[in-house]
Design goal:
There is one protein chain. The chain is mainly alpha-helical. The chain contains six helices and no strands. The chain has one domain. The mean pLDDT is 91.
């Protein structure tokens, strides 16, 4: 049992690194404007396909062709967790050293939208303060890390149903 847990962990870590690169490419594409946003959809499709493919690899290589729904779900959540760590690191480097004005520009765009909404002054100042906190590099990165893990949970609920496979009655 210990060996199977280690295999799950090691497999999720190894393929989570590949997924982390895909998550990072998706993020970088999304910062490049309209062309990058269009290509970002291709990256999302690639991530969805790789989730299914890596789970099938795990089932066939590490689980001898049989995978329960729960084990598939836990594998996918761990896969996304490791990918999220790598992606969060890339985002932190991006926001801190590569393009440090990215989040402040995003904050300014958000504030312009708030001004157009004509909120009362008290609500607007509270919202501005909240946005300033949320759009600091470390807070933004931590939020995206957990959002990626929750996304993995939701994706896992679906993909695990397609990748589960019972052991044959005739196998021992």
């Amino acid at each position: 049992m210990e060996n199977k847990r280690r295999n799950l962990f090691q497999h999720a870590m190894a393929y989570g690194a590949i997924m982390g690169v895909l998550f990072s490419v998706n993020f970088l594409l999304s910062t490049m404007g309209k062309v990058g946003n269009i290509l970002s959809y291709v990256a999302v499709g690639t991530i969805a396909y790789c989730t299914y493919y890596f789970t099938c690899l795990f089932r066939d290589r590490e689980c001898e062709g049989a995978l329960t729904y729960g084990k598939g779900l836990s594998y996918i959540v761990m896969l996304y967790f490791f990918a999220a760590i790598i992606s969060a690191t890339v985002k932190f480097v991006f926001f801190t050293w590569i393009k440090p004005d990215f989040l402040s520009d995003l904050l300014n765009q958000s504030l312009l939208i708030l001004e157009e909404m004509n909120l009362p002054n008290m609500e607007q100042s509270l919202t501005t303060q909240t946005l300033e906190t949320m759009l600091s590099p470390i807070v933004y990165v931590m939020q995206s890390l957990w959002m990626n893990v929750f996304t993995g949970l939701f994706v896992g609920l679906i993909v695990a149903a397609f990748t589960k496979k019972e052991k044959s009655l005739f196998e021992e």
